[in-house]
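User: quick one, fold this
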Amino acid sequence: MIFFTVIVSISFLGDLAALAQGEPPPSNSREQERAPHPRVKVIENGDSKRKPEDCRGIIVGVGVNQPDHFPGYGGFVGWESPIRLKNGVWLVGFNAGYWHASAGYGKAMGLPDGSLFITSIATGSHRTEDAKNNGIRCIRLRVRADHSGIDLLPAPNR
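Assistant:
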């Protein structure tokens, strides 16, 4: 039996140093073009000798795939939540906004075509009247038949 371990590593110490010194996030121009790209190394017959925390890197962050500025954006663009689906696709969820989670209170509704329509009021885990941004978010999705992920769908017609 052959075992494979995949290591993804990205050098991002410069970005961390800039954040630590309180420098503003760089724009998406030349800094992003020079951003490091992941390297994948497959190791046969065994696990990596490196610890998992030594193999971490930035996929979205300061100068790397950074979103354009928008109201409320303070430079925070991520959570460490990568998931590898059974079919090998990497799913990485992230948040771009205030420097805290924007958890909300939501409700999912099953539609006749088998998809889900999910609505959420985003209060940042605060009481509604104390929230900085009471955005209402909606998403429509369908879980793939083979359970390999989801498909995002357009909003339903009225």
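User: anything notable?
Assistant: The CA atoms of residues 19 and 25 lie 8 Å apart.
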